[in-house]
Amino acid sequence: MSSNSLRPGEDFSAAYRIYGSMLYKIALLHLGSKEDAEEALQETFIKLMYKAPAFQDLEHEKAWLIRVMTNHCKNVRSSLWRKRVVKLENMDQWFETAEDRTMLDNIMKLPFKYKMTIHLYYYEDYAIKQIADILQISESAVKMRLQRGRQLLKLDLEGEQHG
Length: 163
Hints:
By secondary structure, the protein is mainly α. The protein is 70% helix and 0% strand. The radius of gyration is 17 Å and the shape is globular.
C-alpha cells in the first residue's frame, strides 16, 4: 500500500474525539484565531489519514499528532501573509480567572520555541523526555527552553506588577 493512500479500517472519528480538543487548543495558542486553528486541525487530520506511520500505541499517535500540529503552526506563522499581529478571539471562555488569562497573554508573547515547550510541560503534562521526543530536540534543550521561558514569564509578570 502506498503511503499516500487512506489506511483502511482506521477510525478517524475516534482519533478526533480523543485528540481534537487538545490539538485545537495548541493551534489556537499558536495561531491566535479560531479560523486558523480550525484549518490547522483539519490539515493535521488529513496528514493522519494519508501520511501517518503505523503507531506503536496511543501515546505514539498523540506525540505524532502534536508534532504535526506544531510543525504546521510554525509553517503558518512563518508564511508572509501571517506577518501581522495575532489577535486572540473569544479566548475568555477558556479561563476560570483573570490571572489565568493574564498568564496565557504572557505565554503568547514568548518566542514559539518557549511557548510550545511550556504548553506541553504545564498544560499537557508531558515529561521532559516526552517533549524532547515530540519536538525532536535533546532533553537538555527542553530543560533550557523551560528555564528560559519561565525567566521571560517572570520578567513579564514582574513588569506588569510594577507598571
